[in-house]
Amino acid sequence: MDENVILKVLAMWTLFSSCFASSLKFPPVVPALFVIGDSSVDCGTNNFLGTFARANHLPYGRDFDTHQPTGRFSNGRIPVDYLATRLGLPLVPSYLGQAGDVQDMIHGVNYASAGAGIIFSSGSELGQHISFAQQVQQFTDTLQQFIISMGEDAATELISDSVFYISIGINDYIHYYLLNVSNVDNLYLPWSFNQFLASSVRQEIKNLYNLNVRKVVLTGLAPIGCAPQYLWQYGSMDILKNHESYGFNVTNEACCGYGKYKGWIMCLSPEMACSNASNHIWWDQFHPTDAVNAILADNIWNGQHTKMCHPMNLEDMHKSKATHPLIVRGPLSALYASENINDTRTEVILRIAMQTKRRLTPNTASSLISRFA
Ligand SMILES: *[C@@H]1O[C@H](CO)[C@@H](O)[C@H](O)[C@H]1NC(C)=O
Ligand SMILES: *[C@@H]1O[C@H](CO)[C@@H](O)[C@H](O)[C@H]1NC(C)=O
Ligand SMILES: *[C@@H]1O[C@H](CO)[C@@H](O)[C@H](O)[C@H]1NC(C)=O
Ligand SMILES: *[C@@H]1O[C@H](CO)[C@@H](O)[C@H](O)[C@H]1NC(C)=O
Asked: What own/partner pairs with CB < 8 Å and gap ≥ 24 does 235-243 have?
């Protein structure tokens, strides 16, 4: 065997075992959790791609269950890990990190890829990624495997009872507004760009619906995946406002990185990280700490700390027996609802992108791009 092949098999095994670190102890609340998105929920996809948007090195993962880097963009768990636990499921494996046996995918699959956006080319400056539409296609392939293995009726039942978690959109703003790729400033006014993104998301959700997906959590833009100093300025997020009661006393500086707000040079090595991330909101300049991810998952599940989902939280969605598709919308996902396209939170995101663009120099651009991935 070629050395590279052996290394890849080893890497896949490491990822596989870490994703299955917790075993199923109780009957799960739902049969499976499927995840689509960007770096806010990537659990290892990009480890298999040629890209700068990777978190497969320490200190990433240092506070994870295995204390090893897995590809997650945090010091520990990401929100879907906490949600999987809430649902009584094992941690969901990444699509590229498992061998493709139905048995390994039966409790869900994570297709998320750092850098990915709603628009195919968003994030391409960083290298390879799996776009939103490609992730939906990968899910279609998974579903085909389920149908072959367990029959159409059982596969349909499994899918319609399962939860789909979609967290995507920020990279479309970054790569189109921030960097003015493809002359997009001239092609779209901000509000029509919103509308374009929203209609693309709606179309993909329709595609999922046609595959019998019925329970969707759409978090929209990563809840707080933006430059902390800007969010602090505009900040209306509960965690930022009430940081002290949550035990966070470091709110605008990341745990890992270098320079002002630890944001000028990305988090590259263990020496660049603070010793204890648990009192920080930000792990690196653009991704929250494990402690914040736990709170986000609690809020999505039952609004434990603050009501964050509309029109209902995930627990209520699970209990309701409605047959129409249920979409729980998280913070900033108003962006995707056409009736609310001018939502003030959307405006904040746009303003952040615009302001940051003016401050960009070629030298800081590339580091910013990777931070936003
Ligand atoms: C975006 O790029 C186009 C040309 O590709 C240019 O005409 C336009 O002025 C740029 N916009 C900004 C805000 O830099
Ligand atoms: C945050 O609190 C810890 C103790 O829990 C303390 O060591 C640290 O200096 C504090 N940091 C700030 C910025 O207040
Ligand atoms: C980090 O700090 C928290 C309190 O802020 C404490 O409970 C925890 O034990 C500390 N962890 C380590 C590894 O020192
Ligand atoms: C959103 O705001 C813009 C600019 O203020 C306005 O031109 C547009 O009509 C608004 N769109 C909706 C759907 O309200």
From this structure: 236/345, 237/331, 238/305, 238/306, 238/308, 239/281, 239/292, 239/295, 240/281, 243/281
